[in-house]
Amino acid sequence: VRRAYKTYDGQPFELTEGQEEIFDAIYSKIHKRVHISTYTQYGKSDVVSLAVLTRCSLYPEKWAIIAPNEKKAKIIIGYAIQHLFDNPVTYDRFQIGRDESLERIRRERSKSKLTFRIEKGLIGEMFILSAEAHRTAEVSKALMGFGAANVVEDEAALIPDPIHSTVMRMLGGYKENFLCKIGNPFERNHFLRSYRDPRYNKIAIDWRQGVKEGRITQEFIEEMRQEALFEILYDCKFPEQTAIDAKGYSHLLTDSDLDNSYINDIQLFGSQRLGCDVAGGGKNYSVIVIRGDNGAKVIYKEKNPDTMSFVGIILKLAQENHIPPPGIFIDIVGLGKGVYDRLDEQYGGLSNTQGRVNGINNGTKPENEEDFFNLKAQSYWRLGQWIKQGGKLKRHKSWEELLNIKYKVQSDRKIKMKPKEETLREGIM
C-alpha cells in the first residue's frame, strides 16, 4: 500500500495497525465472512476502497459495494477513483467509457462502476448500489441482475434485513463468494447476528485503539462523550436488547434517568426561559414549563379551551419571573399560532426593543442538519443529554411523558424521533 497509493497531499499512504488488518481481511479473502466495527472517522472507507481497488485491478472479479443510501455508496467508489491514478497498474488497466475523459473522472469522482482490463479479455469490476428501505424491491432486482461474488456492505447495520437477505441469495449463486460487513453497530439486526456468528472473522476497533495508533486524542474523546450516540460511534457497542422496539426505536430516557433527575424543590439559576404548549381543550392540557441552567419545573398545567386567556397567563408568569420576550418559546403548530401572534402583538412585535417571542415549529430544519432529522429530534436529544448530565426536574407527573419519547438512527445517520402518530396508534397518549 505504501508503494502503490498516496494520501491527498501526495505522501505514501501509511496504514496504521488496525487499517492494515482491515485491508488484509478484504484483499487476502482468507476468511469468506468478515465483520468489522470501527469507531467513526477511523478512515475505514478509504482503506476499504484501497483493498477493493487492488483486487479489481489485479484479479478478474466483480465486487459490489452496498451502502444504506446513495451518498454513502459514492464515498468508497469516490476514494477508489482518487487512488486509481496513484500508480501505473491501476491507471493503465482502468477502462474508460466511450464518452468519458480521465480528467473529468478524476475531477468529478461520480462514477457508479469502475472496470479494469486484466488479461485475455478478462476484467475486474466494482460497482455501487444504494440499499434505501423504500427501494427494497428495486435494489433486490438490481442485485440479482448485476450479480457479484464479492460484496462489501458499508454501514451494514443501516442496511435493512430484507435487502441483506437478497445479498445472501445472490452470493449463494457463486460457489466461491466473499462478504464483508463494516460499520457502526446502530441496530440489532443482521449486523448483530453476524457479530455473534462464529463463521465471521471479527475485527473491532474502538476509540482506545485509535488513541493508541495516534489517530485520535484522549482529549477529543472526553469532549465527544457528551455528544450523540457515543457508545455506538466510539465504543462500538450495540444497543441493549430492551432498548429497541420492533421498528428500531430506542427510548430517549430510562426510568433511572428520570428518577435521578427528580428533586422535590429547586431554585433555578442562570438564564431562565418559558416553554409553552397550547392544547385548546379536549383531553389535552395546556402546559408551561420554566427552565434555568440547572433545572426545570412545570408551573402551569390546565385544560384551558380559551386560547386567548392562555396569552394572559403567559404574560403574567413571564412578568413574575422576569423573563423577556426572547425567553418565551411557543409551539406554533395548530392552535399555538394564534397564541403566538397575540402574544407578539402584546409585546409590540417588531417595535419591541427587548426582542421577540420565539415561535417553534418542530418540523423545521435543525441547527445541526448533519446529525438530526428536524428541530424536534435536535431539541429532544439535547434535553435528554441535559438530563443525563445532571439537569434537575422538580417532581411532577407530567415529566413521565418523556419516557414515551423514542428515537432511531436513519440510513443517513440522522437521529429521528418517533412520530406522535405512531405512538398514538400504539395506545400511548
How would you describe the overall organization of this protein?
InterPro entries: P-loop_NTPase (IPR027417). This is Terminase large subunit gp17-like C-terminal domain-containing protein. With 429 residues, the protein is an alpha/beta fold. The chain folds into two domains: 17-239, 3-Layer(aba) Sandwich (Rossmann fold); 250-425, 2-Layer Sandwich (Nucleotidyltransferase, domain 5). The radius of gyration is 27 Å and the shape is elongated. A hairpin with a 5-residue loop joins strand 17 (406-409) and strand 18. The relative contact order is 0.10. Strands 3-4-5-2-6-7-1-8 form an eight-stranded mixed β-sheet, with helices on both faces. Helix content is 36%, strand content 19%. It has helices at 17-28, 44-58, 70-83, 88-93, 102-108, 136-146, 161-171, 190-196, 207-213, 218-224, 230-233, 255-261, 307-320, 336-346, 375-388, 420-425, and strands at 33-38, 62-67, 94-95, 113-117, 123-130, 150-154, 178-183, 201-205, 250-251, 262-263, 273-277, 286-291, 295-302, 328-331, 358-360, 392-394, 406-409, 415-417. The longest helix is centred in the first third of the chain and has 15 residues, at 44-58.
